[in-house]
Amino acid sequence: DDDDDDDDGLASLPTPKHSLADGESVDFTSSSGSVYKLKRTGDHYYCVCPAWRNQSAPVNARTCKHLTEYLGAEYEKARVGHVKAVPVRKGARKKPRILLAHKWEGAKDVSGWLMSEKLDGVRAYWNGKELLSRLGNAFPAPDWFKKHLPTDMHLDGELFMGRGKFNDTVSVVKTSGSKRWKKVTYQVFDSNCDDESATFENRYESLVLWREAINDPSADHIVALKHSLVKDNKHVEKELKKVTEELGGEGVMLRHKEGKYVDARSDKLLKAKVFYDAEAEVIGYKTGKGRHKGRMGALEVKMECGKTFYLGTGFSDAQRKSPPKVGAIVTYKFQELTPDGIPRFASFIGERMDMDKAKDFIPKKKSKKK
User: Fold this and answer.
1) How do residues 135-167 score in pLDDT, each as one tens digit?
2) Is the pTM above the cut of 0.85?
3) Closest Cα partner for 127 from 145, 146, 144, 151?
4) HSE (CB half, 13 Å, CA atoms) of 370?
5) Which residues are catalytic?
6) What is the pLDDT of residues 23-62, one digit of tens each?
7) How many CB atoms lie within 10 A of CB 44?
8) Which residues pair with 287 in a beta bridge?
């Protein structure tokens, strides 16, 4: 039934006044003359208006007057009404303690460390009761999804739907009552995260033993992420190339066996990723804010394919005071392309003096394997 539930019951609702295909967006002009972008992703309908953005309801249970006018009142009432309600815990949420990584640039010797694939998913911390985001917000995971998670052990992992499916994962894990949770796995890479004295080697051993003790097919979505022993730096480089070029993954994570779980970035946890280079033409600027007030905040650039985006990181203060001129060709690095073909995590590298046209780089299409 995995291929038949992408619309999560939307097909059984009344016919909308206007149809939006999955991933499609439209500019909607309100009665006041303001223009708002409406978009559909799976069973989610988005509007950029403050009334939609400021709601606390799950994303697929939100609506606004613009969506109601565009899709029709009957459709919106049925669409929002069919979403299963999720109780909202009152009071301020406490952010979980999260261990974060530094970047591995290739120089540091990581022989003897443990290595795993860096998953392109959504970070999720299990505190014994709830799956929490880094900000402390509880994911509306179904009861069956949490049934086998321990009450006496904290876990750290990723909600994951497969390589290259980050946007799909974000869409689903914000949704309550969605059948598409069946496509999500919880890839756990750490345990006993509340024990400040335990080493990673001990924490991972506890994780594996706990997972092996669950002998129930209904827990197959819970996975103890595999780690391998690093032989030397060349081993990491070889694995990184395999993960990114052959499997379409994001990168690899490196963990020191003696690393402790701390609420900070640690030099015992490193991430290694591959970035791509491309060139774009400068067509405008965005004014800086905060400490960049009075200087360039971001370059508006145009890709070879004609798409535009803002390039706002990687600049020195001097470059922000005197940015590349309109018409200049600049090189930027990025990790991957969004479904709309826009570079993700793009960062400025420098201005090209030997090129007069933009040049795109299209990464190899990511594997659909989990």
Assistant:
1) 898 999 999 999 999 999 999 999 999 988 887
2) no
3) 151
4) 13
5) 118
6) 788 899 887 788 888 888 777 788 988 888 887 777 778 8
7) 20
8) 296
